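Batch job 17 of 40 flagged for manual review because the log was empty.
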Amino acid sequence: MTAYTQVSSNRLKTWLIMFFFAFFVTVVFYVFASAYGFDAPSALGISGIALIIAGIMNFFSYYTSDKLVMAISGAKQIQKKDNPDLFRTVENLCIASGLPMPKIYIIEDTAPNAFATGRDPKHAAIAFTGGILSKLSKLELEGVTAHELSHVGNYDTRLMTIVSILVGTVALAADFFLRISFYSRGDRDNDRGGNAIFLALGLVMAILAPIIAMLIQLAISRKREFLADAFGALLTRNPDSLADALLKISKDKEPLEAANKATAHLYITNPLKNQKNAIGLFANLFNTHPQIDQRVKALRAMQ
């Protein structure tokens, strides 16, 4: 399989999942509204309003998420004079990819890892840990940088912000529905008496919807990692360097202290090394990243 085939396949799968996610969110709000007696047009209208509200929340996150993530991660911006070699590596890859130069940040931690953030290529930033700069070879660091620039070029950081807001919206709606259902004690307006079937379906949906939404979010995150791997390999023309970097990072057992569950999906590999990935029948379902051996196998297979 060529790198171009990998890119096309992963891009298609991501957008199919996104389409399903938007449909799923609409169905969730439709069921909740129908459970309280709204007719079909009104229930669809409520679903539309919910999506609009999520869009407004995305608008504010659009301008603030990158600064917030950097602050949470304890990342400090550096200039070219602080690390000329790193800047040259990023600059060369930016020239090759046609992307503007991102801001460069350093996280003072000896665990090797890196992530990209920013609302678009013109407002992007890449953070490297001190550990990744000291433990990877030049070619391996180039592979990691190409991977992170691919996230920037593919607008992955914007996409994952949108997905996170949708997941949060579903979770809030489900919690609100459960609270109203348990505390209203059947005293709803008789003119809009909830359909019993929709009410039962709504209760089931309120329990399952947040879990399903989270699983979709994780699935999108994993697909974007595969996509960034493929784009990174195209950019450097050296998939083996990224594969070697992934193996080296994964074998380092030191957890990244600055990372947490909210930011773990941003990094090139799961930074929470003390938390084991899901295995067995549910392998990958609850993981923020694909298994390293799967990523390496895909990279090694590229021609």
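Reviewer: the log was empty due to a logging misconfiguration, but the result itself is present. The two ends are 7 Å apart (CA to CA). Unflagging and moving on to job 18.
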